[in-house]
Amino acid sequence: MKKKIALVTGGFTGESVISLKSAAVVEKTIDRDRYDVYKILIYPGDWHFVCESGEKIPVDLNDFSISIGDEKITFDGVFNILHGSPGEDGKLAGYFDMLGIPYTTCDQLTSAITMNKGYTKAIVQDIPELHIAQSIQLFENTEKNRKRIEAELSLPLFIKPNNGGSSIGMSKVKTWEELSEALEKAFAEDKQVLVEEFVSGREFSVGVFRGKGEIKVLPATEIVSSKEFFDFEAKYIPGVCEEITPGRMNEEEIARVSRVASRVYEKLNCRGAVRIDYFLEKETGKFFFIEINTVPGQTETSLISQQIRAIGMEVKDFYTQLIEEMFV
């Protein structure tokens, strides 16, 4: 008998648009011989499934079920492709844990921690061969904090919301005159902001997942952007940046990145597929950790999809491994 899988998408943030695009790819690619898939859209106060007839069926939040006619449908597991809150920050994970429903992504604690860039860096900073840029984590936008930034950090700086994705609210600051506006932009998106020194290096993103009981590190993608940094436009508008998969690294760098990425995955107790962004510093080749994304995009052109194809695996088989791993 085929397993019933809820494909959850939508969300409470601006990333919901990307989540819907990812869900559309997963929905058409997933192995229908093995799974019956129901796309569940989750918005504030509105969780629903849309029938082929167009009828909107509400989700019963008591047990995460839907009723189509006289049939009540419960789910064997959840394929989580909801970027941002509540799919990536641990809220949905905690809900599914209470109901005893398995899901494809990290557990509640790991999801909550990794959504916070500052807390994540504090946990991974002692991993061998991994380096962290100098930074300050802010909880309010005050003159005192602005003076602290000028006293403790050197230009240029990256200013970014501490809990968030898709580079929304992020700025690169080259002069102190730009600092106030960048902080206001970031604090408009989040109550916590990370201010970080710029690392001059080549930018990469590497997928890591657990499949068939093993942690697998995919070939990294090198990102060559025509923009100042890999911002929302560079990520989602074709032609703004060049993505090279596999990225241009020598054998030593490939081996070192694989070691570090595996250790990050293990130390944060990750599950499913994640994407780790990093720099290789230009002068030294050192691995500088940027952030981890625990619900990475699954669009046709997403980095994870490119990396899966680079190892000769069908994306459909990749999804099957993610789903089966949650039942282990």
UniProtKB/TrEMBL annotation:
<dbReference type="GO" id="GO:0046872">
    <property type="term" value="F:metal ion binding"/>
</dbReference>
<keyword id="KW-0479">Metal-binding</keyword>
<keyword id="KW-0133">Cell shape</keyword>
<dbReference type="InterPro" id="IPR011761">
    <property type="entry name" value="ATP-grasp"/>
</dbReference>
<feature type="binding site">
    <location>
        <position position="293"/>
    </location>
    <ligand>
        <name>Mg(2+) 2</name>
    </ligand>
</feature>
<feature type="active site">
    <location>
        <position position="302"/>
    </location>
</feature>
<keyword id="KW-0963">Cytoplasm</keyword>
<feature type="binding site">
    <location>
        <position position="291"/>
    </location>
    <ligand>
        <name>Mg(2+) 2</name>
    </ligand>
</feature>
<dbReference type="InterPro" id="IPR011095">
    <property type="entry name" value="Dala_Dala_lig_C"/>
</dbReference>
<keyword id="KW-0436">Ligase</keyword>
<keyword id="KW-0067">ATP-binding</keyword>
<dbReference type="GO" id="GO:0008716">
    <property type="term" value="F:D-alanine-D-alanine ligase activity"/>
</dbReference>
<keyword id="KW-0961">Cell wall biogenesis/degradation</keyword>
<protein>
    <recommendedName>
        <fullName>D-alanine--D-alanine ligase</fullName>
        <ecNumber>6.3.2.4</ecNumber>
    </recommendedName>
</protein>
<feature type="active site">
    <location>
        <position position="15"/>
    </location>
</feature>
<keyword id="KW-0573">Peptidoglycan synthesis</keyword>
<dbReference type="GO" id="GO:0008360">
    <property type="term" value="P:regulation of cell shape"/>
</dbReference>
<dbReference type="GO" id="GO:0071555">
    <property type="term" value="P:cell wall organization"/>
</dbReference>
<dbReference type="GO" id="GO:0005524">
    <property type="term" value="F:ATP binding"/>
</dbReference>
<feature type="domain" description="ATP-grasp">
    <location>
        <begin position="117"/>
        <end position="324"/>
    </location>
</feature>
<comment type="pathway">
    <text>Cell wall biogenesis; peptidoglycan biosynthesis.</text>
</comment>
<feature type="binding site">
    <location>
        <position position="277"/>
    </location>
    <ligand>
        <name>Mg(2+) 1</name>
    </ligand>
</feature>
<feature type="binding site">
    <location>
        <position position="291"/>
    </location>
    <ligand>
        <name>Mg(2+) 1</name>
    </ligand>
</feature>
<feature type="active site">
    <location>
        <position position="166"/>
    </location>
</feature>
<keyword id="KW-0547">Nucleotide-binding</keyword>
<comment type="function">
    <text>Cell wall formation.</text>
</comment>
<dbReference type="Pfam" id="PF07478">
    <property type="entry name" value="Dala_Dala_lig_C"/>
</dbReference>
<keyword id="KW-0460">Magnesium</keyword>
<comment type="similarity">
    <text>Belongs to the D-alanine--D-alanine ligase family.</text>
</comment>
<dbReference type="InterPro" id="IPR013815">
    <property type="entry name" value="ATP_grasp_subdomain_1"/>
</dbReference>
<dbReference type="Pfam" id="PF01820">
    <property type="entry name" value="Dala_Dala_lig_N"/>
</dbReference>
<dbReference type="GO" id="GO:0005737">
    <property type="term" value="C:cytoplasm"/>
</dbReference>
<dbReference type="InterPro" id="IPR000291">
    <property type="entry name" value="D-Ala_lig_Van_CS"/>
</dbReference>
<dbReference type="InterPro" id="IPR005905">
    <property type="entry name" value="D_ala_D_ala"/>
</dbReference>
<keyword id="KW-0464">Manganese</keyword>
<dbReference type="InterPro" id="IPR011127">
    <property type="entry name" value="Dala_Dala_lig_N"/>
</dbReference>
<dbReference type="GO" id="GO:0009252">
    <property type="term" value="P:peptidoglycan biosynthetic process"/>
</dbReference>
<dbReference type="InterPro" id="IPR016185">
    <property type="entry name" value="PreATP-grasp_dom_sf"/>
</dbReference>
